[in-house]
Amino acid sequence: MTKRALVVVDIQNDYFPAGKWPLSGIEAAADNAARLIASARAAGDLVIHIRHEFATDDAPFFTPGSEGAQVHPKARNLAGEHVALKHQVNAFRGTDLKETLDRNGVTEVVICGAMSHMCIDAAARAASDFGYQVTVVHDACATRDLEFDGVHAPAAEVHAAFMAALGFAYATLRSTDEYLDASKIQPKVA
Description:
Elements: E1 4-9, H1 26-43, E2 46-52, E3 82-86, H2 97-103, E4 108-114, H3 116-129, E5 133-142, E6 146-148, E7 151-153, H4 155-169, E8 172-174, H5 176-183
């Protein structure tokens, strides 16, 4: 029998409009993540929150101990829900994430959060490499515009490119509605 965990990656204050590193579409992504969290809780699935802090005070965002590094209220953990603190892009590196998943017998990992092109990509690839069945809920993820070698890539294109790559070999991709419909659990709307 499949045992599932929802891994909510870096939905933190600095990624929102008043923060130091705002992402395109973060409000909608966080709203969808909140629906996923409610569904996972209702199903009795393990919910794990990942919170990123850089190691030094001169970080561009997620400064240690800052309000910006705190989990946003839309995705806040309940008492008893595990929060893994990371200092690297990959949520498995230097954290107890894999140990927590394995201790709880998890075989399926559902991932949402930020940023699509960094921490979501890294977590999904690592989870797949560790042998978990991986689903990325694409509309519960957000990113930002990027630039490389004089080429500007809008956030929507960055997101699409990374989701396409993950969907090719690392994860099943679902929208929030598709995922919730497939899981047959609909959270109550407040």
